[in-house]
Amino acid sequence: MRFPRAMMGRGHLGGHNPAIQVVWEKLRTSFWLVPSLMALAALAIAVAATWADFQLADADPASMPRFIFVSTPDAARDVLSTLLSSMITMTSLVFSITMVVLSLAANQFGPRLIRSFMSNPHTQFVLGTFVMTSVYCLLELGSVGSTTEEKMQPFPSVSLGLLLMLVSVLVLVSFLHFLARSIVSETLIKRLGTEVADMVAELDDLPEDRNQQTAAALPEDFEREATFFGPRADGFVQSIDLDGLKELAEDADVLVAFSFRPGDYVIADGGGIGVCPGRNCTPELQEHICRMIVVGSRRTSTQDPEFAIRHLVEMAVRALSPGVNDPYTATAVLAQLSAGLAHLMKRALPESVVTGADGGARIVVPSSTYASVVGAAFNQIRQNAASKPFVILHLIEAILRIADHVRLPEQADVLEEQLDAALDAGSAIGDFDRQAINARAEAARSAINRQRQRLIQERR
Question: Is the backbone of residue 11 left (phi > 0), alpha (psi -120 to 50) or beta?
Fold first, then answer.
């Protein structure tokens, strides 16, 4: 088993507990959290409205404002009953429409992109509004007029129910407009591009000594002296609590090295974790280390810089499939990717080495590199667009746009490798299209070399 021996990047992904971030990721991409909270809010509102009914039970109806509903308890219950039945029908309609749109989106853009729809606050708020109004009407239906005489009196609770009904109708109209726009590819591409931008924004800026590489810190006899074990479950590594692991490693005076990173798939009880020296690796320490690793059934954006990028790439690959053959969606994805990668050039990728208080290495974990991130963005699109000069040309255009933002020599090397690969992929294209591709490729190569020369001069 081989572990990385060179530092793969600098920076970090957030400072919060990774396990908590994974839980929050699951909660914010669920349909039940916001509606449940709004249902609880309906309970509190219903209690307050019922209290207002009893407080105004003996008030003169003629002195009440016009927006306060005034009637007998039986009439009030009839109104609430009508509102409740209408809201149940509308709620069923909204959930049905949502499921249909999700099915269409899964077929058109891919099932993994359903997460983007489910995490949208607009959708969650609409569903929560209908659930809240239904719960409120149900609670008030059982309390209105339960201890009052059959006489004309004000019912603020009914007025509030009518207001919530009006809000629900307005929200329904807004929701239909939102759904119509959400299944347009450009809207989804922009939304996923925002996720890429958010991921990049969580990374640190490149430090002043960005041209200096830090050597990795595995001892030569690591594989001979270390004890190897693996996570306790099968699945994707969702997060690794590096802060907690550093404390464990310092207390036990060990070096912990991983052969996997967040986003990789692991098998239970494998050998992907090494602890050196092995004599200090007790069964209790192994259990503590395994608890610091969150393994789940799917990848998450926590500590995985390539997660959001792969969602965009999936859209482009599906668009380039023979059954769809939609190069315009692929080029729109390339444009969005170029924006995200251009900003990434100014950021430091996560560290692969975590040092302790004494300055020595305590944790070594594989980290994303500029080559792996740019490759995740472009490789599959290039491979599926080898016979499509229109897409290859836009791929080169994307490289040209990114080249102006290069900040490290290794970034320039990565872009040049991608440029060469794009030219090789288009080698079978006709002469006329080939000329246009070569012309843009020369412009991109010139931009890359110009940035490389500038970096060399800065180092002097």
Answer: left
Residues 419-435 have a mean pLDDT of 83
319 burial type by CB count under 10 A (0-12 exposed, 13-18 middle, 19+ buried):
buried
77: number of Cβ within 10 Å:
20
Q: DSSP states of 72-93 as a string?
A: -HHHHHHHHHHHHHHHHHHHHH
399 and 439 Cβ atoms separated by less than 8 Å: no
- Could you report the per-residue pLDDT of 242-258, keeping only the tens digit for each? 888 999 999 998 999 99
Residue spans per domain, the chain: 31-183, 206-212+306-348+368-459
* pTM attached to this predicted model: 0.75
- Provide the 10 A C-beta neighbour count for residue 2: 6
Nearest residue to 258 (alpha-carbon basis) of 104, 380, 370, 363 = 363
Sheet (strand 265-266) strand order? 265-266, 235-240, 293-296
* Interior/surface letters 191-208, b for 16+ CB within 10 angstroms, e for the rest: bbbebbeebbebbeebee
pLDDT in tens, 403-422: 999 999 899 999 999 999 99
Rounded Cα distance between 32 and 166, Å, is 23
Token reading at 215: 């050597």
